[in-house]
Specification:
The protein is mainly alpha-helical and 285 residues long. Helices cover 77% and strands 0% of the residues. It has 13 helices and no strands.
């Protein structure tokens, strides 16, 4: 997902909301195609026919759609560095949400990491005079998405979950398209229309579905430590793109804040690796 900002920059002629609409519609189409190939219709029917699962996935679909919308807006408005910061602090937000809603205790190192992240956000607020709303929105929406998804747990596989999530939000996207194109304001109308843009919008489905499904499959095959470390690859790549490719202005306060977040990440990851190294192994007393 790290190079994805480059892709969304190619779709700038379409507004952020229209891009997300296409992303939803074509993600659903991609997932339905994969469901047909895997012949997993029974799992999809069960999910749709179970009110608790359907309601939970509708909520998670709304949260991930908000996350996508803020992310695309950030990339196409020259604020990719803000998006990267949001994904850096997301695991820390997830830990806090787990403590609040699931009763999980924060370990000392986790508390330190969260505290350092709070200091980093405070530095930005003082320097900018406003909340870094893009970073916080991305971290909170994705953290809440994970919390809601935890409610369905192992009852729904990754493909079925993504299919239902995008299916619940697609009617909203289609209603928006009807209004947008009826007024002649769609990106595929007028001077902005092109075969390249149309192809790019259609590809938003596979571009969305493939990484999410591959990640879900990978988590079942690699150690948790690798999964934990891999979640920081994307924001690192995004930050480097913002700085070296998009040439976004990064103020001294932003550098200080980012450095503090990296310190928090190091503390967080070190604690994770220590816990894994000292975890009781099967067969040992």
């Amino acid at each position: 997902m790290g190079p994805v900002p480059l892709y969304f920059r190619l779709l700038q002629d379409a507004g952020s909301v229209e891009i997300i609409g296409h992303r939803l519609v074509w993600t659903l189409a991609t997932c339905l195609g994969l469901t047909a190939l895997r012949r997993s219709w029974p799992a999809l029917r069960t999910a749709v026919a179970t009110p608790r699962i359907l309601g939970t996935l509708a909520a998670s679909g709304l949260l991930v759609s908000v996350n996508w919308l803020v992310y695309v807006y950030a990339v196409n408005s020259g604020r990719t560095a803000d998006a990267a910061l949001g994904y850096f602090i997301n695991p820390l937000v997830t830990v806090v949400l787990a403590a609040i809603f699931l009763g999980e205790r924060l370990r000392r190192a986790q508390g330190v990491a969260v505290g350092v992240a709070v200091v980093a956000i405070t530095v930005l607020v003082v320097a900018q005079g406003s909340l870094p709303w893009i970073s916080l929105s991305l971290a909170l929406s994705f953290g809440l998405y994970g919390l809601v998804k935890k409610r369905v747990g192992g009852r729904v596989d990754a493909l079925t979950g993504l299919t239902v999530e995008s299916g619940c939000m697609t009617p909203v996207a289609l209603a928006y398209f009807a209004w947008l194109y009826a007024g002649g304001h769609g990106a595929l109308q007028g001077t902005t229309a092109s075969a390249g843009l149309a192809a790019g919008l259609v590809l938003a489905g596979p571009v969305t579905a493939a990484p999410l499904l591959l990640f879900a499959a990978g988590t079942r095959r690699v150690p948790l430590s690798i999964v934990g470390l891999s979640q920081y690859i994307t924001p690192v790549m995004q930050f480097l793109l913002a700085w070296a490719v998009f040439h976004e202005e990064i103020s001294p306060a932003r550098w200080v804040s980012t450095a503090l977040v990296w310190v928090a990440v190091v503390v967080f990851v070190t604690d994770l690796l220590w816990q894994l190294a000292h975890r009781p192994r099967p067969g040992k007393h």
